[in-house]
Amino acid sequence: MDSVIWSRLLTTETLAFHIIFATIGVGVPVFISIAEGLGLLKKDPHYLLMARRWTRGFVITVAVGVVTGTCIGVMLSLLWPQFMQLAGNVISLPLFMETFAFFFEAIFLGIYLYTWDRFKKPIYHWLTSIPIIIGSTFSAVFITMVNSFMNTPAGFTIDKPSGKFTSIDPIAAMFNPATPTKVAHVVSSAYLASGFLLASIAAYFILRGRNHEYFKKALKLTMIAGFALSLLTILAGDFSGKFLAKYQPAKLAAMEWHFETKKEAPLIVGGILDKDTHEVKYSFKIPYGLSILGLGSPEGKITGLQDIPKDQWPPLFIHYTFDMKVTIGFYLAAIATLFLLLWWWKRGNEWHPWLMRGILLAGPLSFVAIELGWITAEVGRQPWIIQGIMRVQHAATSSNQVGLIFVLFTILYCLLAVICTTVLYRLFKGKGPEKELIERKWESDVEVVNS
Amino acid sequence: MNLAYIGITVLWLFAYGYLIIASIDFGAGFFSYYSMLTRKEHVVNRIIERYLSPVWEVTNVFLIFFIVGFIGFFPDTAYYYGTALLIPGSIALILLTIRGSFYAFANYGVRKNKIYMFLYGMTGLFIPASLSTGLTISEGGFITKEAGTVLFHPDRLFGSLYSWSVVFLAIVSILYISASFLTYYADRAHDFPARQQLRTYALAWSMPTILASLLVFWGLSMHNPTHFARALDYAWMFAASLVCFLGSLYLIWKQKKFGIAFLLVMFQFAFAFFGYGISHLPYLLYPYIHIRDALTHTSMGWALVAAFIAGLFLLVPAIVLLLRLFLFNAEYVKGGKEGK
Ligand code: HDD
Ligand code: HEM
Ligand code: HEM
């Protein structure tokens, strides 16, 4: 295999690993802050403990996020030197600003972690959670701007003979056409996945028969947020579809196996493609679906792959990754709605074991959705590393040692995954919140027995 | 001043920031492991933990900042260094990854684990060794350009006396900087047994530091005589560095004013590091990348400078707050207030 393939594999592997921790890093602080805020507002020790326990797990995952992020940051130059040389001229501003966002977050995270009981007014401690949220969310915003640029490059003109970028406008590059929809979808999905992750932990303990109020409050909080966020994410996803129809028709057509340019295009779900005749079998068709997703009206005309040169077709398997992700998206919205309905309906049992199992599953699924979404978006950009400007094979390093490096990093990530999980497991094993509430004298034994 | 020089000055400042706080961090990791081996952990480890726990992530950001900023201001460097540094860069990354994550596993996890401590302690010595090869390579001779492709010659790097002297200097400086800072920190905490122990470390590593610097000069004079000649133009900076070193050594020896002593250590390295940097210019990679040719477009350059200034308004108050809460808060340092 040549260096291009190895570089792509290593980039994919590192990003796929990083994104798990990055998502937690962006989303969980929001929930920590909400929990601590509620705890102070309602003078409820359960929420305060929730914030502490979530934080304790969070720092471990942040550490892995930081180190894997450092890896990608450096790897972009090591594996894609031509890309960085060219794009660096236009897009280094948001990359640079991202480091400031990290800085800001890192400083306040250090403060937040070690000042639980230090301020006379507890509200000051809560206030230090705000810069953490700002820092991590903005780091996601800035990095997503970089990725948007790769999809819809803007803010420069190309000097024809030399192929160099001239008259650079860094602001226009940051606010390229892909930025609004991508940023909205990435941020809302990170919050969403983090909410479901925390919900899934609470559901697990309820399933195990732990019926302390603590778990129920945690689940209610995360489900309310999960409901709102799932709708927001779907909405942002719908806008992403409209964006693609306008700016990256090849990606949308590949996602939907849409070959002929036409109006009233149906949305194809699942199915099997015949590579030669381009016929789709065994699929479920939603009439007008694609026209609505792409253009917001059944009349909309959607460009098909036949109008795109064949050497610019993205791999067609992204149809499946996209469909699976959308299915998960609707599943998440449905399960949160179900929980809220049963809670609201006096005779419903929102703690039913099957519902808890469904929520338990939703946590991991939401992370699968994040991975699938990125695979769809990144593979759908193929063969371009910068859409329409630079192809992937022209961007990769010429070194022939990438294979070796790939093996080393694979071992490293496997080790990290295993150790991180064990450390988290040990951290909480046998140290339930019930016990901790008593140890902290926030609750007496009697209360626990009664609840 | 022109844009290229503003850019490199900002970046060099951050590289210097990283040099100091990462050295404290790396050295501290080594000392905690070492004191665990020699069963003295109860003496020094508490001091080390109290300082490190809140700041380790900040350290890492300094490095990222330098790298991202460097590529932002001088995108051409991404091409040359990116191609050349695949192996050493990846090794440094793997070490950094191990270190950062194992620090968190060891300190935020449930219990101390000898293997985590070992990994955390030893990587602290190897990371600077591998990062410092970046500086070595910038001296030229290890990268060549043939028929349009950039080639890296690791055999030359491993066979070079200069390269090994830089590695040696990186390792001993780390231990020296770290020990002198921790001595000061222990002094503030009124933890006298720890202060005594750390002071011995500081004294022990002072002479090797000077020896290593001389070795580097000698190595440079042979490896890149042009750079060496330019360094002589700035001889006063290196002399000032030596004076600061002697001052700090005197204070630590006499057990007086540990704070001033550490400040002098910072000045010692500032003079040497900036002297090295100035004399290295105008080349970012000898003889391929000249600072003026590598500069990004002016609009981007100024945008980066503006972002940097805006960022400082945000960061400086935040850093002051961090320092006031943890470094200059006598009660915290002594171990009064906490809460996890
Ligand atoms: C929990 C995660 C999650 C969920 C439930 C959804 N998405 Fe998504 N989607 C992402 C997480 C995500 C993502 C990981 O954030 C992506 C990858 C790249 C990007 O910009 O966002 C993404 C990309 C992405 C793209 C490609 C954008 C581009 O390449 O520019 C489209 C068209 C959609 N999504 C559409 C949807 C629709 C119609 C959904 C309805 C259910 C949906 N997504 C749910
Ligand atoms: C947000 C900023 C991001 C940037 C700047 C970025 C950059 C890149 C680069 C340079 C490549 C290699 C070239 C290519 O094969 O097309 C790539 C590919 C890829 N990236 Fe991204 N990426 C980003 C986000 C992500 C995230 C978060 C994921 C999460 C999983 C991801 C998944 C992938 C995948 C799967 C590929 C490989 C595509 C293939 O197989 O050809 N990307 N990306
Ligand atoms: C959209 C996808 C991504 C999101 C949401 C994201 C977000 C995050 C978050 C939340 C962290 C943890 C930072 C902390 O807690 O301090 C992190 C670390 C990091 N990420 Fe990502 N990231 C993404 C993709 C990337 C890509 C493609 C790059 C490469 C340019 C990158 C570079 C970094 C770096 C350098 C760090 C470490 C920063 C430090 O030292 O604190 N990230 N990222």
UniProtKB/TrEMBL annotation, chain A:
Keywords per UniProt:
Cell membrane, Electron transport, Heme, Iron, Membrane, Metal-binding, Transmembrane, Transmembrane helix, Transport
Q: Which residues form a coiled coil?
A: none
Membrane-topology descriptor: Multi-pass membrane protein
Query: Which InterPro entries does the record associate with it?
Result: Cyt-d_ubiquinol_oxidase_su_1
Q: Is Cell membrane included in the keywords of this UniProt record?
A: yes
Output the Gene Ontology terms for molecular function.
electron transfer activity; heme binding; metal ion binding; oxidoreductase activity, acting on diphenols and related substances as donors, oxygen as acceptor
- Spell out the subcellular localization from the entry: Cell membrane
Entry's transmembrane regions? 15-38, 58-79, 91-114, 126-146, 183-206, 218-237, 328-345, 354-375, 404-428
**Main localisation, per the record?**
membrane
Among the record's GO biological process terms, what is one? aerobic electron transport chain
Q: Name one GO cellular component term.
A: plasma membrane
Family, according to the entry, reads as follows: Belongs to the cytochrome ubiquinol oxidase subunit 1 family.
Which PANTHER family does the record match to this protein? CYTOCHROME BD MENAQUINOL OXIDASE SUBUNIT I-RELATED (PTHR30365:SF14), CYTOCHROME D UBIQUINOL OXIDASE (PTHR30365)
What is the name listed in the Swiss-Prot or TrEMBL entry for this protein?
Cytochrome bd-I ubiquinol oxidase subunit 1 apoprotein
From TrEMBL, chain B:
Q: Which family does it belong to?
A: Belongs to the cytochrome ubiquinol oxidase subunit 2 family.
List the subcellular locations: Cell membrane
Report the transmembrane regions from the record.
6-34, 55-74, 80-105, 117-137, 161-186, 198-222, 234-253, 260-279, 299-327
Q: Which UniProt keywords apply?
A: Cell membrane, Membrane, Transmembrane, Transmembrane helix
State whether keyword Ribonucleoprotein applies.
Answer: no
Full protein name: Cytochrome bd-I ubiquinol oxidase subunit 2 apoprotein
Membrane topology according to the record: Multi-pass membrane protein
Has the keyword GTP-binding been applied to this entry? no
Q: Name one Pfam family in it.
A: Cyt_bd_oxida_II
The lineage's top-level taxon is Bacteria
Give the InterPro entries listed for this entry: Cyt-d_oxidase_su2
| GO cellular component assignments | plasma membrane
Organism name: Seinonella peptonophila
